[in-house]
Structures are given as C-alpha cells and as structure tokens.
Design goal:
The complex is a heterodimer of chains A (235) and B (108). Chain A is mainly alpha-helical and 235 residues long. In chain A, 71% of the residues lie in helices and 0% in strands. With 108 residues, chain B is mostly helical. In chain B, 77% of the residues lie in helices and 0% in strands. In chain B, α3 runs antiparallel to α4. The mean pLDDT of chain B is 93. The chains are: A mainly alpha (235), B mainly alpha (108). The interface between A and B is large, with 108 and 82 residues.
Chain lengths: 235, 108
Amino acid sequence: MIHTKSYLQGLKSLIGIRSPALALAASFIALGAIFKQAGFSLEQSVASSLFTYALPGQLVMTESYLLGASLINIFISVWLVNFRFYPMTVALMPALQHKSQPRWKYYLSCHFLAVSSWLIMKDGYKKIDKKYRLDYWIGIGSGTLSSAVLSTLFGYLISDYLNNNMMIALAIVNPVYFLCMMIGAMKNIKTTVAIIIGIILGPLFYLTIPEWSILIAGFIGGTAAFLMKGKNNDI
Amino acid sequence: MTSSSIVLIIIITSVATYISRVLGVLTSERLSIKSKIFSWFNYVAYSILAALISRMIIFPAGALLESTLLIRLIVIAVCVAVFIFSKKNLVLPTMLSFILLTLLSDSY
C-alpha cells in the first residue's frame, strides 16, 4: 500500500539543515495562542489545524468568528484565501502520477498540500523514482502536518507565557522561511521571472484589490513567464 | 456564539480549503507533466506564492503589524544573506529571524 523506504525518505525532510520544522512550529505555536485568546477549546484548536491545515485560512476563520460573520461569508472568504491551493495542486500532482498508484491515495494526500510541503516536494521530487513519488509526498506531508498539529497544541498550552514581542517575532519566521525557499527555487530564468513579478505585483495590487491581489498577481506573473521565449521547466 | 457554532465554523473552513486541493487533483488526472497547461500552472503557482510572501512581509496581518516595515526588511535582508552564504541552510536564517526581531522590537 505504501513504499516504506520512500515514505521515510519524505518524512526525513523534517530533519537536517533544510528542515521546515522551525518555521512550521513558529507559525502554528502563534496560531495556537491566537485560538486560545479567541475562546476556542483545545480540541477545537487541534481539530482546526488537523482538518484545515492552512494558516491564512485559519486566521481568516478566527477573525471572521470574532467579528461575528455569517457562515456563508466565512466559507467564501476562506475559499478565496486558500484558492491558491488549486493551481499549486495542479502544478504538483501530474509529477506524482504513476499507473501503479491507487486513485484514493491522491485524493487523501492532497490534504497535505501547503506552501512548505509544496516547496519541499518541488525541490526534491526529481531524485525519487517515479513509481514511489506519491509515497515520498505522503512522507513529507504527514511529517509537516503532524508538526503543525503538535505546534498548535503546544502554542495553545503555553499561550499565557507568550508576550507581545514573542508573538511578533514568531510571525516573521514563516515569511523568512518561505522567502529563502523561493530564492532557492529560482533555478531557471522563467521561474525567476514568475517569482519576481509576483513579489512586485502582490503588494501593489493589495492596495487596490486586497482579496484578489495574490491570485491576479500570480496569474499575470505566471502567464508572463510562460509566454517568454525558451524551454518550459517542470520544477 | 456557542461552542457548537465554533465546530461548525471549523468544518466549513476545512471544507472550503479541501475543495481547492481536491479540484486540483481532479484537474491533474489527465494532465501530463510535459503539457503546456502544466507548465503554465507551474509558473502561476510560483508567482502566486511569491505574491503571497511579499504581501505577508510588506502588508502583514496580525502581530507583525506592530513591527515597522524597516525593521522587517532589515531582518529579511540579513536572513536571506545568511541563507545564501550558508549554502542554503534554512534552520540558521529561521532561528536568526526570531532572535533578530525580538531584539529589534525590544530596542524600539
């Protein structure tokens, strides 16, 4: 059902100098503390990270809850914030396909998709035998998701000990990790162009169309890179 | 709101998030890694992530709002330099970012 060696190889991405564990821990510890302050129970906080596992969406959920937004409004705002997962999944899953793998594994393991797991997978999948790439992905995903869930639990429990300065400092760790990973991904000219246009247009569009800024900036940056002359890259 | 409505909100948030992931799997089913559509999605995904990260740094939400843009940019610049000069070590810059921002927030 699962190729143990590839699974463990994926799980091992949590250790070593390229580990995402600190970045995940910082952001989900902060989230656990935010849940506690918002009046969520411990079980609810853990369940949210386990079943949603998408930081910006979970923050939108908490904010909307505190503002007393309607369920339909919460659904729409979360859907919009997390819609980036759609292009991210399409940009990843075809690389993991193999006829020997059952379909249900794709439908379950797509839950592991997040910025960190996506960047790690994109960085390393070529080294893995095509047949077992999905198992490698499940290894990365179960490791990163578990880190997020455990950190939420920990953050909830220690929230009284986190002062304001620590909350601010925890919030910078994730963007720093993401940015370093992105710089590491700039291995060819077309991907580099896509990334640089995104970096410039994201904040710029945020000033006029905050909800759609990320998606539209990415659409423009990605299309511009795609239309550029030269060979297309699959990582 | 009551506790049951929190549970409902968590379920709704999880479903709203899973939809995008599962639609991605559905779209991928017949998509070859060699196709042009895959390439386009690939660049769009990278560009969306870049836009998101840049927005998180320049127009943050939550706790980071209490730091100034200048301090954030200094921390980011130092950490990216450490990342590049440490042969792409990620643990060092992430740890350093926390320490630097704690120190800088204390002194301003």
